[in-house]
Every structure is written in structure tokens, then in C-alpha cells.
Amino acid sequence: TCTTCHERGFERGVIHGECLRCRNDKRGPAKKFSDENGMNPASVRPLCLQNLTKMEEMLISPVLPIMQVRYTKGRQLCYRDHVVNFPQDISAIAAKLPRLPEETDTVIIRRDSLDMSRHIDFIVRRDKVRAALEYKIAHDPNYASFVIDKGNLSQLPQNGSVVHRISTCPIRSTQTNNHLQAPGPAEAAGDIVDDIDDINFEDVDDNHEQRHNGVLNLGTAGRSEIEQLTAPQLGGVPINESTPGYIVKAFPTLFPDGRGDYYQPRVHKVELGEYFSHLMLFEDGCFARHRRFPWFAFNTLQRHRSRNQSRIFIQQQHDAAGLTAAEIRAML
Fold it and tell me: Cα–Cα distance between 178 and 72 in angstroms, integer?
């Protein structure tokens, strides 16, 4: 592990505690990937922020990344479509945390016969949530304006499942439609989604899955029966991805004291791809192991590069600068 950039990996060329890249960086004490350049989250995480379940982390997050996360056959994870980030609707709750489970905008798609009551992702421990929030409010400037909602906290179980409080869509068939199987690693591919698709819906595939008048219709091809349910009500409008602190707020356990946000002021500029690559190699592996962060990083970087490429196209194609979106689609 390099003591400057805190990255760990093979062939880092570490000599006297510093990797080859950091040794070749002659920018002075504030090297590009150093603490002085604001690149590194806290390397030591307090016990109260360790081993939170997926639901517990969502309950203390002011920003909610909406994404589809799926289990493939073999219990590996994959995702499909794009990620969009929504803020907590603080106009109605006066900047209070934690959320309630029913306010996390989560939809679970599962087999009808599957018992979800003991699924680890949906276990909530009240004292764990309280301790995590107390630490974040005391140590993270992004949480300074939040207060603990004792009423919401009292509605969380002392140590139990909240799956019954989350919108669930059971599939009433032994056959699962192939379009639910999202692409994943070749060795994880299978004919059927294993155990559960736990999905936060932003949008859904226009060919099979549609959202009309607030009703989520997941299609019926290849199934005998599937329920319709009201789609989650997303608060506000999507967050501008240039907003400082939104990444830190979306993943509070990965940034214990709020340091390491991409949009914080820095001495030396860092590209978004460099930023995410750095975090994925961070010394304790917490970013790479996280259930949602790798997909969030990958998709955010994809969209960032697409926007940059579209700007280059418009700059180079002066005749296309005056075209409408509909005209460009027609040309394609």
C-alpha cells in the first residue's frame, strides 16, 4: 500500500512506502492523489459505520441513487440501464433523518414462493442506525444541517426485517422472462435470476416495462401472472451531477467524514475517470466491495464521457449545431 495515495494493488512499485506514480509526481507536498489534494476518504472507519446492511445505509443517505441491481445465477451482482440520483425531499421533513423503509423508493421483484423476511439486505437495527447518524452529523460537514428524527427512529425495529414495509412485486410463475436477466460476467450468466431482483426503479425498458399514471407494469411475457403496483414517488428532480457533495451523501459509509468528494476544491485537477479508478483501488477495498458503488461509478463515468463526446461532435459539426433533438434522431 502506498502511504501517499493509499492505493493497494499488484505491480505498484512501492519503495519506502510510496508507489512509482507518487514518486514521479514532483508537484511538491500536495501530490495529485494525496490527502493534501483532497483525494482520500478517511482510511479508518468507525465501528458504527461498518457492516451496515443495504437498507440501513439507504435510511441514513440524504441522496438516493436510483438503479437496477440484480442477482445473477451464482449470486453475483449486475445492473442494467442508467443511474439517476434523487435528493431526499427535505421540504416536507425539515432535513431530518433517518428515512423510513417505505420512503427509500425501493421495489423488490421476487418469486412468489420466496421468503424475504430473513434476507440480510433488509434487516434494520435501530441502535446501529442511530449511532451511524450521530457520527455523521458530528463529523461530516455534509450532514451538519440534518437532525435525527426521533419519531422515524422509533418506528424502526430493534433488530428485524423491514421487507414487509417495502413495495414488493411477486412473480406468480416458475418461468422467468429472459429480459429480467441483465448482462453480467460470463461465468455468472444463467437462464433465471437467482433468488431476488432488488431494484430501485428510475425508468424501465420501453419494450416490456412501462410506467403509466404512476403504475409500474412489468409485463407478462413468459409468466402466468404478475402484480401491478404503484411506482415509488421520487422526491424532487434529479440532482445535477456537478453538485458538490452528492456522491458523499449517496454513500455515507464510504466517506465517514465527508472527505474525498470529487467536486471539492483541489490544488490539482483530477479527471472523473482517475477519481473513480483511485477509489476502486483504495487500500481497504471498501469501494470495490460495495454492493452498489461500482455500478454507480461505472455508469456515471459512461454518461460523463458520452456528454463530453457529444460536445465535441457539436463543436466540429457547425451545421448540426442548430438541429433539434428530433432532427438528429431522424438523421441517425
Answer: 12
